[in-house]
Amino acid sequence: MTKTAGCIDDIKAEMRKLYLKDNRPWIIGLSGGKDSTCLTQLVYYMLLELPPELRNKKIHVISSNTLVESPSIDSIIKTRLNRIKNAAKRDNLPIMVEQLKPELSDTFWVNLIGRGYPSPNRWFRWCTDRLKIRPTTRYILNQVKSSGEVVVVLGARKSESVTRAQTMEKYEIPDFRLRRHSSIPGAYVYTPIEDLEVDQVWDYLLKVLSPWGDDNNELRSLYGKADKEIAFMLDKNTPPSGGSRFGCWVCTVVERDRSLEGLIEDGETWLGALLEFRNWLKIIRDDPSLRENMRKQDLKKKILAKKLGEEFNQSEHRGHKTLGPFTFEARHEILRRLITLQEKVADHKISIISPEEIKAIEMIWIYEGDNISSITDVLNSHINRLNLPDLVQDKSLVTGILEDLCAENSVSRSLIEQLLIVEKDLSSLSRRNGIYDRLEQVFGEYILNSDTGCQKQNVEYCAECGCGGCKRLIS
User: Fold this and answer.
1) Which parts of 254-410 fold into alpha helices (H)?
2) Which residues neighbour 440 within 8 Å (Cβ) at sequence distance 6 or greater?
3) CA distances (Å), 16 to each of 22, 154, 173, 301, 469, in order?
């Protein structure tokens, strides 16, 4: 018996013992990388070796789809999940397969283009929590709610990094093979392959056939092209193994996307358009002309300090004043280029941005004080080809009567226009929960914009541009 075979037998024996010990369901995090694939394959074979009458506990196999995955990885993961689902049904195994997605308000484009969040970097990496951790946490919490406790099974290995090993040891429960989840009560983490070395993982994958029909040699070949691990993100305390950013093609945290570059060099030249767009996103992040002068929270503090006659100090990072979100003009340009990119790669049948995301972006722009026609102006000739939901194109909202009334009463035309849009947006709901919060948000943005731009005393309506508070930044 080889060293790897002996270790694998020990791992399966331990998994079998823990599986039969109680009724807590297992949740396996499948990222598509070698470690999580090895883990899932081991659990599958462990179940197959059990008598049917002992296969009573559900096992959930979950995978995170950020909606901005590298197209090659996205296709592989979806195919693998479908094969696991079909194989489990064939073999009568209690395996449930789920692909988790971020909520609409958390997607990459809604935050980058809609809210103007700057492209992520190592200091402001807002994407991981929204795209990966939150969907996983919601799923685990739902299972805890229905079952009381759950066991989250991960393919983490101590030899991946010193940080990974330290994190695993920090939450370890003495005399048990489980660790408490760092942030979810009722959830425990089990890492059965934590002591395997990378060579042992590959030895197992390449010598033992995939029970759902995958060719693990293709996985090995993929690593040769990308040379990076794919991490399943469970919480903020668990750093991704290997420092990989293999998954998301828009990632600007690393200096270069060597994974995409490798795939392009290997013949997938159409990915060059995605790489070019990603590189542009990274460059514009630090262009002051494309960013507001300060963060919204700083802006609110400055206004309050001014009213109270107090001194205001803007936030700093590494000795520099912190910039705010992308300007509306920058957001318009990002969306314009993104739609052009979508049409450029249309033959490859991948979705870059969804119609629902575009609608969400439009509403955020309106709530934050942008012109209601901005989205249609940006999309222009693309609208008919995008199969979009109803956009706010009805300019009859602003009639001549409304304009006259606003002018006569020194009321912002833009503000009334935005409030009407909010009301219309929620008019189809039988119970319009949240409408007051939405209206309050519009009022808040209006007040913020008025205080930062329009300098006319005791006048809410800016006759100069009709915006209800010019969008000029504080100089």
Assistant:
1) 258-265, 272-284, 296-308, 328-344, 355-367, 374-379, 400-408
2) none
3) 11, 16, 20, 57, 66
Q: Tell me what pLDDT residue 453 has.
A: 47
246 with 238: CB under 8 angstroms? no
The low-confidence residues of the chain, meaning pLDDT below 70, are 1-2, 161-176, 225-246, 294-321, 381, 383-402, 424-433, 447-475
Structure tokens at 11: 């791992």
Structure-token pair, residue 295: 């963060």
Residue-level pLDDT at 240: 43
- The domains found in the chain, sorted by start residue, are 3-243 (3.40.50.620), 293-325 (no CATH), 394-475 (no CATH)
* Rounded Cα distance, 134 and 157, in Å: 23
Give the rounded percent of residues in the chain with a pLDDT score beyond 90: 48
Nearest to 110 by CA among 446, 288, 334, 349: 334
Of 87, 93, 91, 84, residue with least CA distance to 61? 84
pTM over 0.70: yes
Place of tokens 């209006």: 446
Neighbouring residues of 79: CB distance < 8 A, sequence distance ≥ 6? none
